[in-house]
Input
Amino acid sequence: MLDIPSISAIVAAIGVLIGVALTVLELRHLHEQKQTDLLIRLYSRLHSNEFQDAFSKIMRLQFKDYEDFLKNYPRHSEARLEINKAISTVCGFFELVGTLLYRKHIDLGLTYDVFGVSAIKEIYEKTKPLTVGFRRELNEPVLGAGFEYLHNELLRKEPQLRKTWAKAILPAVLDSNSPDESSRC
Output
């Protein structure tokens, strides 16, 4: 038979365990909230006029490879200075996102949900010859590694990320196309 001090000790131990469990859950929630806040701040930067102008400037560049880029855009020309600024703005942004992803400061699923993959793939493929050339020229083998990691991880996991997103959004899309829903508009 249990006496009152034994029961009190058991209740106290259970209370401590419950407290620890709640603290762990709260810390996990705070971590997720911090990641979400960080992605929201990054998202607003992605949609700034400066970023959009830089993205367009890069996508309009005409070159086949790094040597062709150097020929078309000489090093100290005014055009090259503007191009370097655009590359720094866009690729630097994705380098940051990729580094945060690699260091597990942001979640791949949430990154995919917020940024998607098409713009990242498009700009990565456009600038890859430049990154390879800059790495060789500057003897910096990890230059752009964060952006490359972001690109590769998104492409590698895109099929399963797309399925989870489709599973979440498809019911809402199907419901909005139902006759009852369309009559509410």
Observations:
- The helical segments are 4-46, 49-59, 66-72, 78-102, 108-115, 118-138, 145-176, 179-182.
- Residues 181-185 have pLDDT under 50 and may be disordered.
